[in-house]
Amino acid sequence: MKPVRLSGVPSPDNADVFLTEDCARIYVSSDGGIFFVQQL
Amino acid sequence: MGVEQRRHPRHVVRLSVRYTNAAQFVNDYVENLSTGGLYIVGAHLLPLHSETEVVIDLPGHGTWTVRARSTFVIGVEAARASGRKAGAGMEIIEKPPGFDDALLGYLLRLGCRREHAVMIDEGMVGRSQFEDAGYQVIALQSEDEVAIALADDSAKILAIIVPPARLDGYRDSLGERSKSLVFPAATVDEIADIIARIDSLF
After folding, report:
1. Positive/negative CA dihedral, B108, B111, B115, B121
2. B115-199 — its CATH code?
3. Most buried residue, A4, A10, B2, B149, by most Cβ within 10 Å?
4. Is B111 close to A39, i.e. CB distance below 8 A?
5. Whole-angstrom Cα distance, residue B136 to residue B175?
6. DSSP category for residue B68
7. Nearest to A3 among B22, B24, B34 (CB)
């Protein structure tokens, strides 16, 4: 299941924010330079 | 390449993927893996629509063999023009039970690493290993400054890597706590052992 892209969620360095089916939130920058995974 | 090989191009029948860089895996998870795809850098010579086994190594979460079919290829020229690396996009058509759980487990482990820090000097062996593993990496501070940094719980420092020659100084300064936090390390193998040890704390 492809993670759903969230909008309007504050993120460092304007990273894209995704939510997986299992409610993990993924922050990933366009160049792959940063990421952050948060289990909700 | 010999004449025989040119006449009958040798198809790659078994590819392997190892994620040694946390950010690389997270990107691939978001773009491909979560929907049953893979992008394999360097596999651009694979003929379109061919099937092959792909061995995927998730450090700490097992080695998995899936069957995949190439669905698009980005050659060297196209890669150069688009700023990507040449390779092949694959669709996973068979996967073993537990594979999806392993992918998510690895993703979450990388998330846990990201929330914690390792203190190590810039010039020391192993710094890049911690960065690639996804840990926050901060510069090694003096014995006294380390004690102050540890008093700040929000720093979430899991390990302090010191040159073997300076081990006693840090252990004396930090006392009993140093036994679970301060590690001497001089080789890549020692760093790998430390990563496995602090991973087990999650």
Report:
1. positive
2. 3.40.50
3. B149
4. yes
5. 24
6. E
7. B34
Residue A15: CA count within 13 A, CB half-sphere = 20
State what percent of residues in chain B have pLDDT above 70: 93
Q: Which residue of B has its CA nearest to A36?
A: B111
A14: closest CA of chain B, how far (Å): 15
Q: Of B199, B23, B198, nearest to B107 (Cα)?
A: B23
Number of domains chain A is built from? 1
pTM of the model: 0.80
Q: What are phi and psi of A8, to 5 degrees?
A: 80, 10
Taking contacts as CB-CB distances below 8 angstroms, the residues of chain B near A16 are 30
Q: How far apart are CA B165 and CA B184, in angstroms?
A: 8
Print the domain residue range for A16: 4-39
The minimum CA-CA distance between B21 and chain A, rounded to whole Å, is 10
User: Residue B53 in contact with residue B92, Cβ under 8 Å?
Assistant: no
CA distances to B28, B101, B136 from B17, in Å = 11, 18, 24
